[in-house]
Amino acid sequence: MIHPIYTELTECRDCYKCVRGCPVKAIQVKDGSAVVVKDRCIYCGHCVDICPSHAKKIRNDLARVRQFLISGRKIYCSLAPSAASEFPEGVDALVLALERLGFTAVSETALGAALVNESIEEYAKEHDGTCSWISTACPTVVQNIKKYHPSLVPALSKVPSPLQCHSAYLRKLYGQDIGVVFVGPCIAKKVEADETPGYPDFALTFEELRTWLKLESLDLSLLAEQIEADPSLVPPFVPCKAGKSTLYPIEGGMIASLSWGSDPFQTKAVAISGSTQVVGTLEGMEKGQRNSDFLELLFCEGGCINGPGCEKGRSSAAKKGCSSRYTRSRITDDAPVFAGDRAFVSTLLEQGYALIEKPGSVAMNPPVSSFVSVHSEAQIERALKSLGKRDKAEELNCGGCGYNSCREMAIAYLDGMAEPEMCVTKMRKEAQSKIDVLLRTIPIGVVIVDDQLRIVDCNNSFLKLFGDIDFSIEGDLLTLVGGLPLERFVPFHEKFKDQFANPRAQQYRLHYQDKFLKVTFFSVEKQHLVGALFEDITTPTVRRETVIKKAEDVIQKSLETVQQIASLLGENAAETEIMLNSLIDAFKVPGNGQSDGFTKEEP
């Protein structure tokens, strides 16, 4: 089965943005591609949200669900309460659409939340009014604890998540052979379906549901208009509507729906959302900063209303307002709402996860610490040197690789999670070093200037040609030339200005101070940097002049002979002389009295 979050390798662009964004660094970079590591992933979906090339994908279970619906079994939809904030057309229209998609009935996941609340309150009654559990409502938090903070597993709630409890409750009411499909904002719910089959059988995101509605040409706005004209079209929730527990998807909603919610100071429970805050809380607890409060931890900032399977670009304030008003309408409406089930709650407290786990099932979430090696300081130091960090001063901790520090990057490299090429400063230094070696050793003059005609870089050959020096400048001294105006070295600096508007390379033959130079202008950065190569071709040109001089002597003698037979040749002699002289002029070196200048080299 495909991992719930995976990478489309052909679309990955080596930007390492997912590495920077992953709260647990579960991304392995191999051969330049960033891949999600299943055993490390906590399914928060943040990499999917931030990937600029959309290479991170969510497993699409729509085809499997559609096939599931025609299996002949009764299939119930467990609809997340965040649907109220996700679909402005209204929950009634959505329930009608789900029925038309083929579901036997729709039930609210918030019923499972109400059962969880009842279990917590029952447990608190037996323990002096307190319950120091960590909520299991957020599967990403559960995955984080199991994989990265295994010592906190005993602190997790003793009852399954609201979705798992809801699935179990539906099976109790309608039979063990029914199917359950969750629809909500969460990717991690797919993991619950994978690890505890049947609780639920499948999980779809709101994004997948929208795709399904389009495929079936179901317009929620039109359905809402039909319902307004005939309210009886709305199918009822089974077994009934949920009450205060519909507030679960916003931060603090779980606690507000408990009896503790009446305490404005919430002295027995704490609500926290957002990856940074949640991770910090868990790390603090692992270090011994424990307390007796019940912890409602939601990994998505603001709660499930901002889950990775939600529609992007909508205001969190608007979604929170919708969710709050939806719950208010439930508790002020005259219609009956779910009153709980004490017998089922007793079963939950007695059996816990045994209620949904099959006998003999193997744990699916080994802690990361069980397969990650602990590296010695010597190994880390060697890794740092491999990354070009030979001393502390070179550990810039710039974060360009995606890790918070060079040391973390070195450890990831040792773990096989990172590649040296991810280090931006290392690659820049190597590139600069290669450029420096090329510039210093190339036998022709090279200069690069910016749009203000200031020298950005040059080499010794350039300085010897135009700087009136007969010695070599090496190392850091050569960098001192950078920033100086080009006109200090060449009188034809204005020629460089013409090249900024021409992206194509241009070649010229330049006569400069009794030298012949082959000049090649090229664009480094369009409208920003221009470079020039100066090749001294004086020596071969002088040799050519010697040949031309001897040719002149031969031509002169030939002309004397031609003149003797001019009467016979007529005007042909004059034309011959003109052509020969033109040939000589074309190859002549200008004399000292002539001005220097550029001659365009024709291709």
TrEMBL record:
The keyword RNA-binding does not apply. Residues 3-31, 32-61 form the 4Fe-4S ferredoxin-type domain. Residues 379-440 form the 4Fe-4S domain. Keywords: 4Fe-4S, Iron, Iron-sulfur, Metal-binding. It holds the Pfam family Fer4_10. InterPro entries: 4Fe-4S_dom (IPR007202), 4Fe4S_Fe-S-bd (IPR017896), 4Fe4S_Fe_S_CS (IPR017900), Cytosolic_Fe-S_CAF (IPR050340), Fe_hydrogenase (IPR009016), Fe_hydrogenase_lsu_C (IPR004108), PAS (IPR000014), PAS-like_dom_sf (IPR035965). GO terms for molecular function: 4 iron, 4 sulfur cluster binding; metal ion binding. The keyword Metal-binding applies. PANTHER family: NITRATE, FORMATE, IRON DEHYDROGENASE (PTHR11615). This is Putative PAS/PAC sensor protein. It comes from Sphaerochaeta globosa (strain ATCC BAA-1886 / DSM 22777 / Buddy). The lineage of its organism: Bacteria, Pseudomonadati, Spirochaetota, Spirochaetia, Spirochaetales.
